[in-house]
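Researcher: Let's continue the batch. This sequence belongs to Dextranase, and it's 1426 residues. Same format as the previous ones, please.
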Amino acid sequence: MKKSKRKRTLSLVSLVALNLSLTSLPMAPVIKAHATSPQISQDGKKQFPSEPIQAFLVDKSRYNPGEKVTMSLLFDSSKEWKGTLNLEVYHLNEKVAEGKKNIQVKRDLKGLEIVWTPPADDFRGYLVKASIEGSNQVLTTAIDVSSDWTHYPRYGYTTEFPKETAAESDKKMKQLTQEYYLNGFQFYDWMWRHDVSVYSKTDNNGKPILDKDGNFITEEITPRTAYKDLLGRMLFPLTIKQQVQAAQKYNAAAMAYQMNYAARENYQDFGVEKEWGLYRKNAQFPNPSQQDQEGFIFDWANTGLYLQDPGNPFWQTYINKEFTRSVNEFGFDGIHLDQWGANDNDYLYDYNGEKRYFSKDYDALINSVKDSLVKNNNKKDFVTFNMVGGNEGYKDVPKPTTNTDFDYSEIWQDKDNYRDLVKVVEDTRKTNGGKAVVIAGYMNYKLATGVHYEAADVKGIPKAEQFSSRIQKVPGWVGDFGRQDEDQIIWTVDVPEAGTYNLDLKYGHENDAFPEGKLSVNNQLVENAISFNEKTGWGNPVADKNLSLHLEKGTNKIKLQLNTNNLWLNIDSIVVKKDSFEKEYEAEDAELISCKVDNIGHVDHFETDGDFIEFTVKAAQAGTYPIKFGYSVERTAVNRHLYVNNELVSNSIKLDPTGSWETFDDTEAIQVPLKAGENKVVLKVEKVNDTGAKVDYLRIGDSRYQAEKSTIGWDPTQKPIIEISNNQISNFKQQGDYLSFKVDSAESKEFPISITYKNAGVETKRSLLVNNKKAGVVHFDQTNDGWNKVEVPIYLYKGSNEIQLKMEDQTAEKGIEVDQLVVNNQVIEATQTELGWSPVVAKTSSISVSPGKTDNFGSAGQRAIFTIHNENETDTLRFKYRTGNNPRVNIYVDGKLIPANNSYVDGKTVSENIFSSTPGGWDGAMVEKSIKATVPAGQHEVVFELASNGEYINLDSLLVGDEEYQVEEASFAPEGHGITTTVGYVYDFNEDGDFLTFDVDAPNAGKYDLVWRYTNDSPSKRTANRSVYVNNEKMENIDFAYSNNWKDQTMTGVPLNEGKNKITIRVENLDDDGVKLDYLQIGTKKYHAESTNSLPPMQIYKGTLLNFGHSGDEVTFDVDLTEKGETSFIFTYSNAGADTVRTIYVDEKPVLDEKGNPYTVVFKSTKNIDTYSEDGYVVLPGLDSGKHKITLKQEDNQKGSINLRRMTVGLFDEPSVRLMDAGLAAMGATHIEMGTAEKYDEGPNMLAHEYYPNRSKKMSSSLKESMKDYYKFIAAYENLLFDSNETTRLVQVEDKGQAFKISTDGEKNTIWSIVRENRDNKGYEDYDVVHLINLLNNDSNWRNAASKPEMYHDLTVRYPIGKTKQDLPNLKVYSASPDANQGQLKELQYQWENDELVITLPSLEYWQMIVIDRNGMENQKPIKIK
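Model: Same format as before. Here are the structure tokens for Dextranase:
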């Protein structure tokens, strides 16, 4: 029934559209009533529809005391009917008003409007019930009577400001205020500029026009007025005004988002002084330049933000004037102050080079903003401030003396667990004087939640069929550990006796300086200055710090903190040792405060037949023990075999999906027999090749054995059929079978190998391998019954060589026999060989690229000079580069300065182009930046000149049209410039199948010389032989002899066609030691190897589509959309190169935007091919529900290659959202998450990202209805949720006598209990509240996707109330939940057991709120509503 009720819960917007005939219903006050629902008569049920009420809403999100409430009901008018409408208004468990009316529903009467004035009491929530006598249906709505919205903020956002009518703006706000009860909105990124929010007049050069008093002049705002924001979005200020007015119409506040210390590019033109700025730690003083100023460059939008000192009184005066101007011009109710997350330990420098711990002045800035707003208009003076990452780093912000109206905190990934939220909320409320707390927690952040379509199911792409083992160990560590004092790792360590123990602390880092830490034991400082003076690189915590410390017998708390700030550490573990006692404690299992697990140590790629993990487990005595494995499996369940001491214990250890590779869970307990002492426990993959699992640990009781410290290996179950019979090898025909033997060589050189064989079948071949590298192919002609001998060359290395003869083709009908092999004068008889099997795996390219680049290129005035030859006029110069800085560059063509293509809002141009930092910085891929410049046909000089100082860049090349000019061929200036260059080349060009394809142009058909620039500096000095193909026709092979420097090798007389030709150079039938290639030269033109195509064709390898990187490649997913409208498609991918794009097609047609351009998906660099992102997405408008073909295609102009795992129709994960909102409300906080969409029909939206316009995920219809229920519940019960205080009382919850594990901080796989009391909550002192949140079968991470909780019935809840029945004879117990029963309180049965209540809870799905009224007789309450 719940689902059908939701279906009919219509928006009040719908009511208006129906042209209702509305009548009034008087409401009578009630002096004494009970919260239980009235008995519904069974008579006359068939007189009206089963759900006669279709919608029930109030007209505003909040009401001032004494303000009238208008309630509206919409009835089912599919047929005429009569009935009696009952309305009841409850404040908690007290009925405060009721009314009845006989109604007759006809075509001209479809609804009612009821006007009622609530009691005058301030800050009260009400639940109103509507029903028709004789029907089982009850609908509810909530009323919030509060004179100040910040007392109970239900904060939403708006960030879409398209051109729309006032009615369209009203419609959006009406929905969010009436259906979701939002009473405040953050207007995000509405500003013209960050330093001048209000759109103002400028001259033709983009400079502001001032009035006679020196003030900015506001631009006239008409329906056509528009401007671009910081990131290039087009905004319509009239829409902003309309949305402000619409929010206020429904008693919701409109808060203007403002960055508290940011000014835009060319800020000095607008009156901001450079002397107010904050400057980087590497800035040059005195007189630092603007590039020394801390800030952020948005290269794609050609804009930037520069930080100002929030404590600077001149900045405060300037920006407060602009804030009040925002309020006056747009009507905002206050200011929402944001910042980038710097806390009290962070410093920069002011203009004079003095250290500024600027966040310590946030309170001063906040108070100055408040004072200026109050002075301007004390009815529009609300202020809040974003404490990024929680309150801990901002000691002066969450204080009563800091004049925020409520506290707000944006939570980042170092606080992903419920316990982190508990700490943030509790600590903030303890210090802020009772202000409300709003949490910005972005749900399912950068996760592909929704409906998945796997790349493995894509049709028309070949799939790999055989697999080699990839099993490997991956270290684990705690990261984001670098803040002084705030960041803490606390290990709980148990030792058998008191004494002095050795402690090895494993760590790693790659800071420029050495972090310093301190160590406490049981809250006593024992090491006050630990220098972490070994650099290991990031993600490689292998350094040891050896310490000695005293521990008490039993449990000890060892806490690591830092004395330094912003010097980061990776912490792996501590090893505690004394005599025979030794135990390792992983940092990832410790208590973490303000830091997080960067990587869980595990065994990865546990996926291939024969993979095994062997644990050495100690048992004190023989017996049967329960063991569990900690693991993660993304989406597909896998099965594993378990052996104990070489005996099979189970062939069905099931590893069910955990939702993502980063979410780990435990298997069910398995009973296994162990002997006293050491045991070998082996988990193994047998007879399958699947998508795999990650294994974290094996757990026996309280002991954990880490998989990353185990033994791993590969022992395939596939067995060879090759055999030795009659002293000869026979039955040599199965794919993967091989014979092997060892041969010594005194030197590295080529030798003949002869094989005596018999082949009764057709001609066949076998591969030769030397030391696991392919050395050639042997062809075996048919011999019938006779013996034959075949001889081929084979390259041996100095020393011992292992030689394999292997069947790599498909299994043959008949096998060959082998009698004898002779190599280097050594005779190997068949009986001397070893036989075996290994998979034949299709190879992918091993080729790597070392780009040519500049070094020491970072000083102002340094120049790279390219001479280009342009066949046709072009309008764009494309530079390939990478940098970890943001250098500014002047570009000249034939001596003429090319203006930067960053057009500041009003057309002003400047000469300096910003080449912003690239993904991966100095270790990342080269990216392209385009500069608009008309270059006629012919020869020209292009100059790349650095304008900034100390901002370095690796410049790779210049592309003009189809021509690429490498930087190593450029010249440089001025004299003594100091710039160096490296040669770009390809390497690791050494495995069978590796190829490079050059696209070359020939002016005429004819024969040409091909000049290959190469070096072969392999240690073996082995000549590299390569095959060459021209337009798919094989030419003669070419040898690249050993050389220790770059040299040329020429092929003469090679035929080329006029125009386009493809020249491919390939490794064939062997693996060798490789050759490095720089370029292919034909005539005077050079084709650089680093720019060629070396990518193998697309292939599906298990669950991943590889090598999606060729022009024309396309991947099609067959989808079935359940809802029509705007749809997000998210792609899970990896991209080791520069950012790239693919065009998206729907049903074989490109989807075009409003400008007629096709929609594309941006795949940003993930830095390496093994790192996957779930944040490549596109939002397509107006799709119909039903079946579609969604195609990604690589067009001719789209470069780069990606690997693809899946496409997801992006939807927020409903269970995780509901659990998060339940947890926050139970803590006494609220969640900013709901906001407007660009179009009403597409909304509302939910926050997916810190950049609010990001719409990578949508809300399902089900989640929208759930959010209506949750916000209604929060409004109705605000007095108990937000004005109560948490207690330390612990409850017990049992299911049929079986106790559930209870947590007070949201521990995984528990029922999370939060108990609150109201001793200091005037008028509510008799109420105790017990929140139960069902985290059973879920982890403690609030951000990740969650499983839908199991519904439990008739649970027993034991509550230690501390009083007896004699003390509280009138006590009553109720429960309510937003998950059921329209949020109504229902009276519960309970019993007394001494001073404990034993309560029967009918059900628990997500969240139940148990309300205990100690003085249950309403007419005895001290405060009565009449």
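Researcher: Any comment?
Model: The chain is about 10% helix and 45% strand.
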